[in-house]
């Protein structure tokens, strides 16, 4: 697999170095661990937010460290959970007296390592709690659903609550509200390849797609014949609308993204099809993001995420944020797409 | 070729519809032509900027329409120049009494159609002039060099001069200064495919790359064996440094980008390698952008652009801009990468 990388296995450290070189006003890299922290520490009376996970999902999660979102991101090796000591180091570095909320994607390795780190931090006298994001609607049983794009919306919305000075219990309640009202689904046109493995995570025929794809290049829940954007948009939105029991007139936040290797032409056509279809159902789009938010290396494909909004979520969603990947400088100023 | 698109040939209109649906506060789509204009018209005493070209290079050019950059972008079919009447319509729509500067990439079709439109606009009493961008350093003869990434920097810098209220002659002089001091070079790890053609623009072996690639999927100037990011960074920077005769201590603006299908992990590793190498040469990086700025559909690979700066170019580069793809909300606030 040809990649713009150097030695396989070095890609995570080198990527984080690149991010820190480009954005020293936003982040700093912890050279002992592959952890990224805010360049400027949050006040002690504000709840700190920690997240992370395997790499390969960029800009998640280091791209979301900064004002209004995360305080720390622990970057594991590509598609591999960060270790317990690494996550514990992140929690200890950014902990405030208001407490720490740890945001975990629902994968067994992440859940085990992040919850262990939370327990160890608590044993060391740190006020810490966690939430687990399981938004991938392609899987029927809720407890087996994987954590994907809604994780980023938890960063954004719980992060804004933390900046407002809300206590840990409230920040957790709001994070949980995002999880309960958000769903995501993905489709892959091509597989991806982990640098150290040097081969594709699965094989796909030239007329096949993987519907309900995870973010680690694992096969989707259903292999299907290729469909055009409009048909995929309908199938994906229907899955979410049904599961969230969305009603005509509901206000939603819409995220339409590529999976890492999807060009902007396709992202904008797919956005158009998703947007026109949700509006045909009578849903009201309050705001949208189009870009790359929770990706799978060089995979080509798309993901749709929908969050049902209420006044509290709307207020926190459009609150200011200043990170590498999401900048909100005023109400309704969308993250830019380049 | 599987793409998140609908009927081949409809992709440009549908993409522009998606952009206009997502960003109605920034752009509006002209339904007769595939032209994109600012949502809010510029004052009549400011020079207007018009650009455009074949589609497939997103976010170029519609993504650069807005405050501080373009007033109009004419989007041709994929990899095909817009027509003379289309460009003329764009010029007429946004023309002010201060005049119009048309920014053309150096491709025979673009040069012919855009200069014809300028002449027709002049014949109709519109004050209009143009510049031609030829920054692709991989080709030796200057007049044959193609227009690539520096075009976007002309949009940004000449656009800022126009907002300042500088006259057409000055805006043109500044645009020309950017062209003289900027160079770009690209490498492809994979080819791309035009939707209507349904096949790759060239074939590449699994251990081959195309060095000096253009932005239309045309083969590069040299087919080479695969090299790692660090080696490519050195080769590409050397080409630019030699051609621009850059000296130790020179201040530069650095753009490191993917070619459409390059994931962020690779863009940040490649950025790190380019940045460390230019700094090892004693060049001073004033600011950088990392993302996708002038792409080639789903091609995987990278481009490096360098602009030699002086005080005038620095002032205009960091001036405010508000477009879909580039937002500068204050000095040194980089465009975000998601």
Give an account of the 3D structure.
The structure is a homodimer of 338-residue chains. With 338 residues, the first copy, chain A, is an alpha/beta fold. Chain A has two domains: 11-181, Rossmann fold (3-Layer(aba) Sandwich); 182-313, Hypothetical Protein Tm841, Chain: A,domain 3, CATH 3.30.1180.20. The first copy, chain A, is built from eight helices and 15 strands. Chain A has helices spanning 11-22, 84-94, 108-123, 150-163, 168-181, 229-244, 264-280, 311-317; strands at residues 27-30, 35-38, 48-55, 66-67, 72-78, 100-105, 128-133, 182-188, 208-211, 222-225, 251-258, 284-291, 301-308, 321-323, 327-328. A six-stranded mixed beta sheet of chain A has the order 1-2-5-3-6-7, with helices on both faces. In chain A, strands 10-9-8-13-11-12 form a six-stranded mixed beta sheet. In chain A, strands 4-14-15 form a three-stranded antiparallel beta sheet, covered by helices on one side. The longest helix of chain A is centred in the last third of the chain and has 17 residues, at 264-280. Chain A starts with 10 loop residues before the first helix and ends in a 10-residue tail after the last strand. The model of chain A is unreliable at 331-338 (pLDDT under 50). Chains A and B meet through helix 1, helix 6, helix 7 and strand 12 of A and helix 1, helix 6, helix 7 and strand 12 of B.
């Amino acid at each position: 697999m040809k990649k713009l990388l150097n030695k396989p296995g070095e890609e995570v450290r080198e990527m984080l170095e690149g991010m820190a070189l480009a954005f020293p006003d936003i982040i700093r890299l912890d050279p002992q661990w592959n952890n990224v922290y805010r360049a400027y520490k949050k006040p002690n009376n504000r709840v700190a937010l920690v997240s992370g996970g395997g790499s390969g999902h960029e800009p998640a999660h280091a791209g979301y460290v900064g004002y209004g979102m995360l305080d720390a991101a622990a970057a594991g090796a590509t598609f591999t959970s960060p270790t317990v000591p690494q996550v514990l180091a992140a929690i200890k570095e950014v902990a405030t007296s208001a407490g720490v909320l740890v945001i975990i994607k629902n994968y067994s390795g992440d859940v085990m390592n992040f919850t262990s780190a939370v327990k160890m931090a608590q044993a060391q006298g740190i006020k810490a709690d966690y939430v687990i994001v399981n938004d991938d609607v392609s899987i029927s049983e809720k407890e087996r659903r994987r954590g994907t794009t809604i994780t980023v919306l938890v960063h954004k919305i719980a992060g804004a609550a933390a900046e407002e000075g809300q206590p840990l219990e409230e920040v957790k309640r709001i994070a949980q509200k995002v999880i309960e009202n958000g769903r995501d689904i993905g489709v892959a046109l091509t597989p991806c390849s982990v640098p150290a493995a040097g081969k594709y995570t699965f094989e796909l025929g030239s007329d096949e797609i993987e519907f309900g794809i995870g973010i680690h290049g694992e096969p989707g829940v259903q292999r299907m014949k290729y469909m055009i954007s409009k048909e995929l948009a309908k199938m994906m939105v229907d899955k979410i609308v049904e599961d969230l029991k969305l009603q005509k007139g509901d206000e939603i936040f819409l995220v339409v993204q590529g999976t890492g290797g999807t060009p902007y032409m396709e992202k904008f056509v797919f956005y158009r099809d998703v947007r026109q279809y949700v509006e045909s159902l009578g849903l009201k789009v309050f705001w949208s993001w189009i870009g790359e938010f929770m990706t799978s290396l060089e995979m080509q494909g798309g993901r749709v995420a929908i969050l049902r909004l209420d006044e509290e979520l709307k207020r926190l969603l459009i609150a200011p944020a200043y990170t590498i990947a999401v900048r909100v400088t005023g109400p309704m100023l969308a993250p830019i797409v380049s």
